Amino acid sequence: MKREAVLRVALIMSVIGLLYYLGYLLFFGYLPAPFLYDKRDTFMDFFNVSYWAYKDDRYLSWGAVYPALSFLVVKCFYWVTGVIPSGNSSMVMRDASAPVFYLYFMVFLISPLAWLYLERKEYGFSQMVAVYFISIISTPALFALERGNLIVLAPVFLALYLVRKDAWRAFSVAVLVNLKPYFILLFIPLVYRGNMRLFVISVYYSLALFVVSGTILDPYYWQVIPNLFSFGSSSDLFSIREVLSLPASLSAYKYVLGHPSVIGSQYYLLYGGWADLFGGVVGLMSLGGVVAALLALYLYKDYCGDDLMLVVLVVVITNLSYTTGGYSLILYFPLIAVFGRLRYARIYLLLLLFLVSPVDIIPLAHSYIGEQYSYLCGRTVGIDWTLGAGALIRPVLNYFLLLLVTVEVYKKNQLNQTFVEL
């Protein structure tokens, strides 16, 4: 009943957020915070990949950080719809590929049905309905949709990993790693538990998928590995407004404070010392939380079930880096039932409630940034950029979630020691 109550509140908040965003779009002609400030860029995570899926120098000139599988998945969208890719830029390609995005939208709507079917034993009908609609209209879900990001496929394979064993689990890891490389962390439970057979199978499937998809796509597919390292080390890859749109990790604050535009500002001349100190502390906190969680899993691996290990690793992934993106919070949706079975279930569910709620409707700051073409309304409009409360609240709450699941692992060990003493 506690879980059902939280799900109802989360659904109500998600509906409020959806209505607010739609009303704002109809009245002002663009989406407010937390959606990206560049209103021309709608759906461009998908169409940037689409454009470069049909270019031969994606890994060399563009520096693509997407494994080959992502480009092949996008090509499948074009193949299914029969759309012939055309255009000399990704935005022109978007304008000529409406049926492709309609298919993406259908996949966005169907994916939660797929993983809910896999987890059907975990929910009653009313809870399943609530979880489904939260999964498609909550703020992180709408953010993923507005970006057109392929992460919307990931919850299906996380659920498959959760409810299946052995070969199916190895297959799930292989697909996830080849969609989003940070899922390589899912190898950790296999290593910690000494399940070398399944570890070898998972690595084999992952490498086979990487090599086969890369061979089909591009002879330089291996270049994605150095591209990923350079991507993560860049200090000015994104603008401050992009990073603060829907951050999920404390590392976003460190990135902002170390951004060249901040370092060269009048603010930095006045408060640079304090900014450096705060950025360093935040960076250490972010890294320390991740290391503590992984260390706890290693030390107390014998007392953690597969479900708890998966939860900890997914929470680590969302806290790992600002580059993971705020849409990574949708990875929590297929884990709701697991969170509900843990020691601190009530706290977890409340944290998830706030993480998916439209707290960004509360403005912290705003500035007029001029006129832009808004893709969603098809005209040029004046943009009043707003920094929403979610930019401050979500990374902090997500970090607290990371600390709490780490404590959960420690408590598993402590409980086991109590039983031994008895």
Structure overview:
There is one protein chain. With 422 residues, the chain is mainly alpha-helical. The protein has helices at 2-28, 44-53, 68-81, 90-95, 98-118, 125-137, 139-147, 154-163, 166-179, 188-192, 196-217, 224-233, 240-243, 251-257, 260-263, 266-299, 306-320, 336-339, 345-356, 390-421, and strands at residues 363-374, 379-388. The chain has a two-stranded antiparallel ribbon. Mean pLDDT is 91; it is low at 418-422.
* Secondary-structure element order, N to C: HHHHHHHHHHHHHHHHHHHEEH
Largest sheet: 2 strands, antiparallel
- What fraction strand? 5-15%
> Averaged pLDDT, please?
91
Distance between the termini: 33 Å
Q: Which structural class fits the helix and strand makeup? A: mainly alpha
Helix content: 55-70%
Order of strands across the main sheet: 1-2
Number of helices: 20
What does the radius of gyration come to?
A: 22 Å
| CA-based shape | globular
The low-confidence parts are 418-422
Based on DSSP secondary structure assignment, what is the total number of beta strands? 2
List descriptors:
5% strand; two-stranded antiparallel ribbon; disordered C terminus; single chain; 20 helices; mainly alpha; 422 residues
Write the layout of secondary structure elements.
Elements: H1 2-28, H2 44-53, H3 68-81, H4 90-95, H5 98-118, H6 125-137, H7 139-147, H8 154-163, H9 166-179, H10 188-192, H11 196-217, H12 224-233, H13 240-243, H14 251-257, H15 260-263, H16 266-299, H17 306-320, H18 336-339, H19 345-356, E1 363-374, E2 379-388, H20 390-421
Antiparallel strand pairs: 1-2
Helix pairs in contact: 1-6, 1-19, 2-3, 3-5, 3-11, 5-6, 5-8, 6-7, 8-9, 9-11, 14-16, 16-17, 16-20, 17-20, 19-20
